[in-house]
Amino acid sequence: MTQFSDLGLSQPVLQALDLKGYTEPTPIQAQAIPAVLEGRDLMGIAQTGTGKTAAFMLPSIDRLRDADRQTPFKSCRMLVLAPTRELAGQIAQSAKDYGALAGLKVQSIVGGTSVNKDRNKLHRGTDILVATPGRLLDLIDQKAFTLDKVEVLVLDEADQMLDLGFIHALRRISQLVPEDRQTLFFSATMPKQIQELVGKYCRNPVKVSVTPESTTAERIDQYLFMVQQDEKQTLLEMILSERHSVPGKFERVLIFARTKHGCDRIVKKLSQVGIPANAIHGNKSQPQRERALDEFKRAKTPILVATDVAARGIDIPGVSHVLNYELPNVPEQYVHRIGRTARAGKDGIAIAFCAEDERDYLKDIRKKTDAEFERLPLPDNFRAVVEGVGPTKREQKPRLARPKVRPTGDAAKKRKPKVKHPNRAGAPKREGAPAGGKSRSGNRRRRSGARQPG
Ligand code: AMP
After folding, report:
1. Fewer beta carbons within 10 angstroms: which end of the chain, N or C?
2. Do residues 258 and 326 lie in contact, with contact meaning Cβ atoms separated by under 8 Å?
3. Which parts of 7-125 are beta strand (E)?
4. Is residue 409 part of a domain?
5. Which of 209, 231, 266 is the last residue of a domain?
6. What average pLDDT does range 182-192 have in this prediction?
7. Helix (H, G, I), strand (E, B) or coil at 80
8. What atom in ligand 1 is closest to the CA of residue 53?
9. Ligand 1 test: best mutation among 20, 48, 93, most atoms within 8 Å of CB?
10. Which residues, judged by CB distance below 6 Å to any ligand atom, belong to the binding site of ligand 1?
């Protein structure tokens, strides 16, 4: 078995890893670290949760230390570009942890925060800068920062950068960094456009891949409900309140919807039936996003509803369930979404809600990922509840008043005594009513179908 000490890393980095409690390298770390230490360019295809941050950060820290250069004024020696604020924050934190004993300065800049503060903090330069592309270009345009001292350039989650429309920003940045830099390029998937980018950015890169393209994380059990679009909210409420059981014990539930308004609508309706949840998407301010993530991490509000903007950036251990309230139209995105669970060696559960008009998306996902979905039955009384014949809102409310996704940690200590539910069953019932029936609100359906990027 390869050990970190076999890979040629320095003592300070090995000590920092010891403090982190990492005992052995993950496959991508074992493959990438020696090549990066040699100064080679690298193209890494790695699924989420594989340890790729350390794969590029550990050897780079050592190379920066060895080069023994001064921290440059208004510039940086290593630039890491990340697609989302959350991911940038996490990478910067990892860089600080791994480089704790290496004496390197780490900064991060992301959109949605004060530009003036960023300008001030970068005035004296930094060794490692983690940035989202837009904010970095803002500072460059203001002549507050330059990239001419960059020795190592890292592009993380390159495919999501493209999805989020960063292609022009990346082109500009690529013209501003020195040609004789080292480039480390990471993407979870390798569509053609990404391969072209690799050709532009990297010189004869070492290729490392820890999973075949778009293969769904193995430790994730995948389930499927066939349910009409305008009945999804009812199903969601029944599942979260455990009036309809699904596999697995809820710890933290991450729900993906396609649009920002869709996320807000789900949160609002959940709150109307007494289930607290937060939303995270591109219209939320940075403090709102941070608060939502923090409450999710601490399991104070263990239900988070997100657009794809959150599909990559979140590294939170203990996401027990990912619910795809709407299926993504790009199959790769499905892989990223469900990759939010089953992190750090744990198992996870992904449940997809598929409406009639999403069957093609489902087909694409199956084709691309070889995913095997186990179909779950709708609740026995689903039709009655949807049509309002079942328990009325008044009757439902007390049952739903407490979220069944239990808080843990600090929040759990403040919890009131548990309310027992007679119909809580371990496994899902197999014989359910089929999805079907008339839509109660054609308008609502049309509205929720309106797409809007997160
Ligand atoms: P990443 O894919 O970089 O987002 O990492 C996923 C998670 O795995 C993070 O929480 C890391 O802290 C953790 N991790 C990375 N490398 C190792 C390792 N060698 N041993 C144990 N955990 C690790």
Report:
1. N
2. yes
3. 42-45, 76-81, 106-109
4. no
5. 209
6. 87
7. strand
8. 3
9. 20
10. 22, 25-26, 29, 49-54, 315, 343-344
Based on the fold, state whether residues 249 and 287 are members of the same structural domain.
yes
Which residues are within 8 A (CB) of 186 and not within 5 positions of it... i.e. 6 or more apart?
43, 44, 45, 46, 52, 56, 154, 155, 156, 157, 158
pLDDT digits (tens, 9 = 90+) for 115-166: 999 999 999 999 999 999 999 999 999 999 999 999 999 999 888 888 778 8
Quickly tell me which residue has 């001292």 as its tokens.
149
| pLDDT tens per residue, range 17-67 | 988 888 889 989 999 999 999 999 999 988 667 889 999 999 999 999 988
Q: What contacts 445, CB < 8 A, 6 or more positions away?
A: 229, 230, 439
Q: How many residues does the chain have?
A: 454
Q: Does residue 436 belong to any structural domain of this protein?
A: no
Q: What is the mean pLDDT of the chain?
A: 82
> How far is the centre of ligand 1, averaged over its atoms, from the C-alpha of 50 (Å)?
6
Residue 405 banded pLDDT, cuts 50, 70, 90: low
Cross-sheet strand order for the sheet of 152-155? 106-109, 126-131, 76-81, 152-155, 182-187, 42-45, 206-209
Determine the Cα–Cα distance for residues 274 and 375; give it in Å rounded to an integer: 28
**pLDDT confidence of residue 217:** 60
What's the CA gap between 281 and 230, in Å, rounded? Answer: 22
Q: Whose CA is nearest to atom 17 of ligand 1?
A: 51
The pLDDT assigned to 345 comes to 55
| Residue ending a domain, choose from 369, 391, 413 | 391
Return the H-helix or E-strand segment holding 304: strand 303-306
Which atom belonging to ligand 1 lies closest to the Cα atom of 94? 12
pLDDT at 396: 47
Please name which of 330, 341, 364, 347 lies closest in space to residue 189, comparing C-alpha atoms.
330
DSSP code, position 179: T
Condensed to tens digits (0 to 9), the pLDDT of residues 385-401 reads: 888 765 544 444 433 33
- The per-residue DSSP string of 321-364 comes to EEEESS--SSHHHHHHHHTTSS-TT--EEEEEEE-GGGHHHHHH
Q: Is residue 75 located within the same domain as residue 164? A: yes
